[in-house]
Design the sequence.
């Protein structure tokens, strides 16, 4: 595998939403922080010219993170634009001309997956795909079969090691920090198993609805939008075995083993909900049965994890915006002091947003004659969540050929295998009121191991960035 730096950055879909919200801010950040200095070529079918793309870059940065004048000016000086239809060989010929002497371009396909084959073919026929890397975004298929098909399509034109599949959760500092904390501190590994851990729960709560993404969202729902991908990556970081070796596949290999050990979900492992009012969002089908909330029970069939339930819930229009994992340790074998201790008393709490916190929950004695205590949480670590925005980190890594933080075809297929049996409205859909923690049935799902512990938000917390 070549680890040479890419020598041109091409983004197809240059006038689209992803470019606007993520790619321009990431590029400005890479120029500012890493001295990124490559030709940057936008491609789109919009009838635009370079000046229009430059104006879009300015707007994008003004709205998403702000302009850093020197980096912005540098970005403008590097920017090129090719306008044309993706079905037209002339578009790719022009791209090849703009690439000039570049021999190892990176192509970011910020376009719908339905166009991947056409574009990959155009890149190949024009010589633009030679020694190239390609970056693609979710959704990677709509089910296992279509994910395999998409994989085969990409593999026709690009070797697996040159395909960079973005799951932006992997670019998040707090998600990386899970692995770091687990494997940089030898005290955790001996207790990180079924002997000491009773259950794990993960909550990804958002206090907003589907906003202007009704059409997109109504084709996916919460399970495919965030659970099958982002949350499964978090589950993997929390439960995978320690990596051996240092190459880019060391972590991904352990993750792949873990994902393969997850039992495919059955209908009793899932509760789906839809917030009241969702069906009137623009783009949503009037009688839509798509879920905006989902709770699942995951089971890992391995010696380390057999019998440890992992609950994951994710939803829109919940009371707060926060992502948090709670690892609940086993209780003492007997209550020495006859107290009624809350189930989640001994825990490790890993908050990924809005701030990054790692806390250890323990019981301490209340001063006095009686042997009674209270729960306290020792904060091991706490700071703002994202120093470097995920897209900046990921695009920087892709251009260096560092694939560790990207998903892999086998991982993607395992993720689909887990959710495939419960797709297609095979489970009931329960309504819930906006601003609540989803339908009552989600509480029943966790009843034997619960309750759910809701992330708490402290108003005016300086570490918490909304
Ligand atoms: C995206 C989903 O992948 O992740 C969105 O499509 C979701 O629905 C978002 O809101 C959450 O990511 P973040 O980084 O904003 O927490």
Sequence:
């Amino acid at each position: 595998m070549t680890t040479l730096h890419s020598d041109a950055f091409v983004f197809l879909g240059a006038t689209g939403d992803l470019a606007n919200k993520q790619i321009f801010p990431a590029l400005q950040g890479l120029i500012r922080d890493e001295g990124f200095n490559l030709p940057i070529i936008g491609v789109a079918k919009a009838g635009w010219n370079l000046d229009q793309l430059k104006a879009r870059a300015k707007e994008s940065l003004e709205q998403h993170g702000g302009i850093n004048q020197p980096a912005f000016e540098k970005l403008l000086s590097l920017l090129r634009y090719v306008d044309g239809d993706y079905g037209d060989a002339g578009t790719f010929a022009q791209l090849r001309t703009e690439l000039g002497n570049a021999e190892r371009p990176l192509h970011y396909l910020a376009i719908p997956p339905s166009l991947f084959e056409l574009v990959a073919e155009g890149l190949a026929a024009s010589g633009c795909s030679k020694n190239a890397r390609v970056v693609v975004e979710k959704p990677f298929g709509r089910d296992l079969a279509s994910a395999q098909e998409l994989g085969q399509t990409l593999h026709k034109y690009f070797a697996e090691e040159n395909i960079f599949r973005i799951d932006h959760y992997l670019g998040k500092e707090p998600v990386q920090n899970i692995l770091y904390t687990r494997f940089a501190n030898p005290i955790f590994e001996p207790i990180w198993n079924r002997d000491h851990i009773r259950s794990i729960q993960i909550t990804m709560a958002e206090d907003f609805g589907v906003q202007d993404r009704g059409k997109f969202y109504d084709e996916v729902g919460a399970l495919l939008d965030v659970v099958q991908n982002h949350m499964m990556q978090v589950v993997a970081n929390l439960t995978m075995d320690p990596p051996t070796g240092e190459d880019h596949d060391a972590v991904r290999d352990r993750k792949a083993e873990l994902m393969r050990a997850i039992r495919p979900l059955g209908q009793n492992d899932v509760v789906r909900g839809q917030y009241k009012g969702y069906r009137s969002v623009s783009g949503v089908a009037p009688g839509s049965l798509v879920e905006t909330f989902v709770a699942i029970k995951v089971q890992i069939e391995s010696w380390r994890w057999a019998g440890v339930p992992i609950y994951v819930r994710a939803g829109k229009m919940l009371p707060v915006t926060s992502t948090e994992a709670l690892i609940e340790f086993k209780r003492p074998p007997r209550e020495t002091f006859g107290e009624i201790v809350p189930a989640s008393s001994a825990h490790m709490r890993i908050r990924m947003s809005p701030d990054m916190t790692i806390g250890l929950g323990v019981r301490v004695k209340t001063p006095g004659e009686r042997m009674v205590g209270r729960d306290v949480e020792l904060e091991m670590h706490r700071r703002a969540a994202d120093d470097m925005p995920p897209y900046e980190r990921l695009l920087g890594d892709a251009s260096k050929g560092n694939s560790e933080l990207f998903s892999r075809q086998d991982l993607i297929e395992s993720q689909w295998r887990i959710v495939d049996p419960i797709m297609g409205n095979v489970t009931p859909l329960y309504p819930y009121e906006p601003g609540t923690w989803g339908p009552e049935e989600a509480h029943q799902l966790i009843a034997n191991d619960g309750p759910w512990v809701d992330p708490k938000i402290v108003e005016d917390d300086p570490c918490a960035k909304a």
